[in-house]
Design a protein that fits this description.
The chain is mainly α. It has helices spanning about 1-35, 80-100, 105-115, 120-135, 135-150, 155-170. The chain is built from six helices and no strands.
């Protein structure tokens, strides 16, 4: 009877471990499922463009191509990698902690995002804002400057980083 109880306990522990493993793998499977739905780029299958002969004295008329026969090229969809999706999710989570004044947690999450994408300016904005809120102006200023170096394509983040820098300078004076 004790052996049967031990076996039942072992089965329950295995089932618990399997459930925990399934919950850990669920986000990875979801990301894989979402990214596998991307459609390939459609290309034209129409006839090739006509070529005009350039030999002197010979004039060949250019054939007209039926433009409605070929398919139009579909615009390429912007592909977002699983790492970029993870960084976006981490940033949302980090900003949520920042809004409730949990700066230690927002910094920890931003540092995880930074390891995935060290050149994303918004990560530095979150880090600088969190450190500044903790009163660590020197670190916040360095992070703001670093973020500005990566924010060339994003005017909104660039302005927000400049605003944090202005706040830091105002607080230091």
């Amino acid at each position: 009877m004790a052996i049967a109880a031990d076996l039942a306990c072992d089965d329950l522990q295995r089932a618990g471990h399997l459930r925990m493993l399934a919950f850990r793998l669920l986000p990875v499977a979801l990301i894989a499922l979402l990214t596998s739905a991307c459609a390939p780029l459609q290309t034209s299958t129409g006839a090739p463009a006509p070529v005009e002969s350039r030999q002197p004295g010979k004039s060949h008329p250019v054939e007209k191509v039926d433009e409605s026969a070929g398919k139009k090229i579909a615009p390429a969809r912007q592909v977002v990698s699983p790492a970029q999706q993870a960084v976006s999710f981490l940033l949302q989570e980090g900003w949520a902690y920042y809004r409730v004044d949990n700066y230690e947690r927002s910094i920890a999450i931003a540092e995880r995002a930074q390891r995935l994408d060290p050149q994303r300016a918004e990560i530095y904005l979150l880090l600088a804002s969190s450190y500044f809120a903790q009163g660590k102006s020197d670190v916040a200023e360095q992070l703001s400057r670093r973020g500005l170096s990566f924010s060339q394509g994003d005017v909104t983040i660039q302005r927000q980083l400049q605003s944090v820098l202005a706040q830091i300078r105002g607080a230091v004076l």
